[in-house]
Amino acid sequence: MIKYTSGLLLIFIFCASCKEQNQTNVPQDNIKSSRAANYSESQLKEADTSRVPMSMVRNVKKARNGDILIASYLGVFRYDACLPDGQGTSFTNISSEISSPRFSSFWDVLEDRKGNLWFGTKDSGVYLLPSGQTTFQHFTTKEGLSSNMALHIYEDKTGNIWFGSSRYDGKSFRNFTTKDGFPSNSIRLLLEDKTGKLWFGAQGEDMFVYDARLNGEVGQGKTFTVLKNKDGKAFNNVWSIIEDKKGNIWFGATIIEDQRGDTSFVSHGLWRYDGSTFTKVSQKGAYAIIEDKNGNIWTTGADEPPRMGQVWSLSRYDQKSLYNKEPTVTEIKSSGEQAFLGLLEANDGSIWFGSGSGVYRYDGKTITDFKSKEGNN
Hints:
single chain, mainly beta, four-stranded antiparallel sheet, 3 helices, 31 strands, 40% strand
């Protein structure tokens, strides 16, 4: 049985080119998240009344009409990208009535091809707002989800929605395990490439690929390939993977170079795969990766080796030198105090990125910290 929560909230988009979208007010959900314990009472109170994301932002996605969707620990926000700057805040908390911020822990958000909104959480399952409706549906393991930890949401080419090892076809869940030939039970679907290959990875697990052209329906064939570098070492701990315009696969990963007892010695890096060869592009880690309209590659991630402790950076790899031995990389912003996480290029070409305390926008010249901006209003 699917859980439902209902109410009403209308969001008005003041731009002729933007589509109006209905959202929902719902009663408080009492599923408690351990993540909220990391925030003080004053921070939780601030999040309750804030007009902008005030907590860690893991993922930033784009709505079908170009709006920015932001999944923060203490709420999911929509930024009305078509509103001109200078007219006050353009953020709306679209999850405020699902649950109190002190009980929320949102990790990902997606608007699918049908206009349905999906919210993934750390330990409270998945919320769905069907397009044109005013009632949220709540999926947990009781409804067939493999885990209440839904850190990533992905829509494949046939319209199925994936949450790690769970695939939802609009009616029911299919959960994949090692019994279906998967090398691991702990996975998240990261990419379906242009050829139909499915690329999987997970924190602490090896990256592997499934070629649907050779094996048919996932779960029917048994051939999964664990990917390894030229030294035969597997790529591990993959957080992000993309396919560029040329069909190359880019991903950030660690490699276990040596293991002595319970101690592992690992190296981080940004990698590119052209179908036959893995090339290490950079020592910089890559939590998130995007390719912009001009073909530049952008990443967020921690430096390796650490510089006076772990330093996170937003970096841009210049399109003209991507295939050079040492590509030109520009460090746009760095911090030793907080992580830089999810990445997105907006319709206007600006780069949005999540952080340990909110969301930033880079317009090519200026970085806007919306949390600080609200504090100055």
